[in-house]
Each structure stands twice: as C-alpha cells, then as structure tokens.
C-alpha cells in the first residue's frame, strides 16, 4: 500500500490531536455544567424548577458523554482525569450560588452554546455535526428557560432584581473566554471542523442585551477577562466538583454495575 510522506503524516496527526482536544472542550463544558446543575436536585425553589433543572443536567451530561466519546473512552475521561487535564471554560465550573446566579450562568452559557451548536451542525466532520444537531434542540430549550427566568427575576421584586444583577456581575468576567481562539481551534476552523465563535460574538452580545433590557437590568461593567480553562488553568471550584463527581469510580475502580 502507498504511504503518505512524513510531512503529511505529521499534519494529519496534528489534526487528529486537535480534533480530540476540541471534542474534550465541548464535552467538558457540557459535563461540568451538567454536574453543577445536578447539585440543585431536591433543593430548587419549587418542584417545577427542580424538575426543569434536573432535565437540563441530564441533557448536558448526555451531550458531554457524546463529545467525550468522540475524543476517546468517555468514562475514563470523565472519571479518571485530574483537574489540570480538564479543558472546560471557566464559566461552567463556577459555583451555583443562589438561584439567580445559577440562572445568570445558564443564560450566558446556553445562549453561546446554542449559537455554537447551530453552526457545528454544519461541521465538515460528520461526527461532530451529528452530536451538535441532536444537542441544538435541547439547548434551545435551556436558552429559553434561562432567559425567561432572567426576565422574571429582573422584572420582579427589588430583592429578585438585586440578586439577578449580582449573579450576572459574578459571571460576566468569564464571557470573553467563550470567544477566545487559540492555535488548536484556529487550525480546526480553517478545515471547517470547528466554528469560529468570533463570528457570532456580536449576535451573542445583542441577544444578551435584549434579554437584559426586557428584564429591566443593566449590563454589568466590563471586567478584566478571566481566561485559561481551555489550557487547564482552573479555579479551585473545579477541584471540589471533581472530588464529588469522581469519588465512586476512583474509590472502587474495579466495580461493575
């Protein structure tokens, strides 16, 4: 059989490594946020919200499983990686705080994730396109639910508006990382595998402004961006989350169910 020149082999290996890295980013985002939201199970303000958040968590964990499955062994990637090996954005690992902070985080992330998945459904890689096409229907609901609650809390009582504003202020500094493009992502964008998030940043910010206007809330002042999650530079919050999420399979590695 004919063999490829060494230079072409190197290129293909780099593309494959970048593909794995990107799928881990997508999978880690969804899985970590799913784990975070699952912490509300049994603790939400009302039963209807408890069920809604549980369903969001299940959707996200499913998306995370699918993308991590493209990157390798999904179970090993989920339960046997140390904190520095995770590639999720910093926004999704932030603590729930109160209900308003959880909703602020969800609205900011789901709006971005929905726009991303819409475009990834047309990825030149059929595997990514398939997972994104399935997930976009779920995330459309996440986005709508979160936006509705931002409006309800912002245009509610003085207390709910204050808490909503505080939740947005906590999460605002993590938005720029969603639109960061590094060397790994740039190469996949060039090949049509990944989506360039900078192409929909204006649309994203316009949509966030629309929701905040309807909620009668002012956008928080711009803050110094916090970056590094894609490179394994995480906050202390992720370590605490993983300690809970990974406890059972790490404690009983040979257990079967």
Automatic annotation (TrEMBL):
* Coiled-coil regions listed: none
* One Gene Ontology cellular component annotation held by this UniProt entry: cytosol
**Biological process (GO) annotations?**
phenylacetate catabolic process
For this protein, the Enzyme Commission number is 1.14.13.149
Recall the GO molecular function terms of this protein's record: phenylacetyl-CoA 1,2-epoxidase activity
Q: Print the keywords alphabetically.
A: Oxidoreductase
Top enzyme class of this protein? oxidoreductase
- SUPFAM superfamilies documented for this protein: Ferritin-like
The molecule here is called Phenylacetate-CoA oxygenase subunit PaaC
Q: Which gene encodes it?
A: paaC
């Amino acid at each position: 059989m004919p063999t490829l020149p060494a230079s072409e082999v190197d290129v293909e290996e780099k593309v494959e490594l970048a593909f794995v890295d990107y799928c881990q980013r997508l999978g880690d985002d969804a899985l970590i946020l799913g784990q975070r939201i699952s912490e509300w199970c049994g603790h939400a303000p009302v039963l209807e919200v408890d069920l809604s958040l549980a369903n969001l968590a299940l959707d996200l964990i499913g998306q995370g499983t699918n993308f991590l499955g493209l990157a390798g062994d999904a179970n090993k990637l989920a339960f046997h990686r140390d904190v520095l090996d995770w590639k999720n954005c910093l926004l999704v690992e932030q603590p729930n705080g109160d209900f308003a902070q959880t909703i602020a985080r969800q609205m900011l992330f789901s709006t971005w994730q929905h726009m991303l998945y819409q475009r990834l459904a047309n990825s030149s890689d059929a595997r990514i396109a398939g997972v994104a096409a399935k997930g976009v229907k779920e995330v459309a609901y996440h986005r709508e639910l979160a936006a509705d609650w931002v409006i309800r809390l912002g245009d509610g009582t003085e207390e709910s508006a204050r808490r909503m504003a505080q939740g947005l202020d906590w999460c605002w500094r993590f938005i720029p990382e969603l639109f960061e493009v590094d060397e790994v992502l740039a190469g996949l964008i060039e090949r049509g595998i990944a989506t360039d998030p900078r192409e929909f940043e204006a649309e994203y910010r316009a949509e966030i402004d629309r929701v905040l206007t309807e909620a009668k809330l002012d956008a928080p002042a711009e803050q110094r961006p916090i970056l590094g999650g894609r490179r394994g530079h995480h906050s202390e919050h992720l370590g605490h989350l993983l300690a809970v999420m990974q406890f059972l399979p790490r404690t009983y590695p040979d257990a079967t169910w």
